[in-house]
Amino acid sequence: MAKILGGIATSHIPAIGVAMDKGLEQTPYWKDFFDAYPPVREWLYAQQPDIAVIFYNDHGLEFFHDRKPTFAIGAAAQYDNADEGWGIAEIPPVTGETELSWHIINQLVEHEFDVTVCQEMKVDHGLTVPLTLMWPGHQYGHIKVIPIAINCERHPMPKPSRCFDFGKAIGDAIRSYSGNQKVVVFGTGGLSHQLDGQRAGFINKAFDLYCMEKIVDEPEALIKFSNFDLVEQAGSQGVELNMWLAMRGALQGKLIELHRSYHLPISNTGAGLQLLATTEAV
Ligand code: DHB
Ligand code: FE
């Protein structure tokens, strides 16, 4: 059976990708942020996962407000980059994994999560920045990726508890797959931020640290929030916490927290990094 080795939650701010492409990691603004990542990269190197299932949000590039799936899952052999406004990013495409994608899709619909299935899907910084953070120099072509987009951009959005249950259904589907693949699950985005409006620049460090504490062993404390609570506490884009909750939902059994770090601000955001290993990890 396929194994879930653990979950990684990380910020996906586009400026991170720009800083890496320009080689700015050791400059004063970025140093502390990037210094948190090597232990997580080393864990990935030791574990050698075959597949990354990535919960992210599409920022209106593949799915704009006129047609917005609540939950969308990729079933393509390759995912090309979206144009984020500066032309199509000159970074490698992302490798897909169609067999496990279809297994997850079938299991989800069987268990009453009626997802949008995408046999073509462009991906944005919500997915490619975390991949580049884990495999610098855009060296992520070897890892097969299953992108799963959760609507965090337009109301109505799925609730935190629903995102957690969605992640749980995906975890169950992965664990029921007859292959022997090793899978790592990502939740990208967050933590508190508000990019526009009257509270633009709003960050709530205390709330971010609370979320990182509770997500380990007490996710019930987080899934009782409404999306309105998240907007109030963490800013309008703070609902990106829902991707972290989907990742956490996919994990089962005793978890070992191998890494937690938090840095603020990066761009307009409280930037968190967390690694939760399952007992399936070596
Ligand atoms: C920023 C954060 C995001 O989550 C995002 O999608 C885009 C920009 C930022 O803080 O700059
Ligand atoms: Fe975002």
From TrEMBL:
- Coiled-coil stretches: none
Keywords for this protein: Dioxygenase, Oxidoreductase
| UniProt key word ATP-binding | no
One family name in Pfam for this protein: LigB
Q: Does the keyword Oxidoreductase apply?
A: yes
Q: Name one GO molecular function term.
A: dioxygenase activity
Domain spans labelled Extradiol ring-cleavage dioxygenase class III enzyme subunit B? 8-269
Stated name of the protein:
Class III extradiol dioxygenase family protein
The record lists the organism as Marinomonas rhodophyticola
Origin organism lineage: Bacteria, Pseudomonadati, Pseudomonadota, Gammaproteobacteria, Oceanospirillales
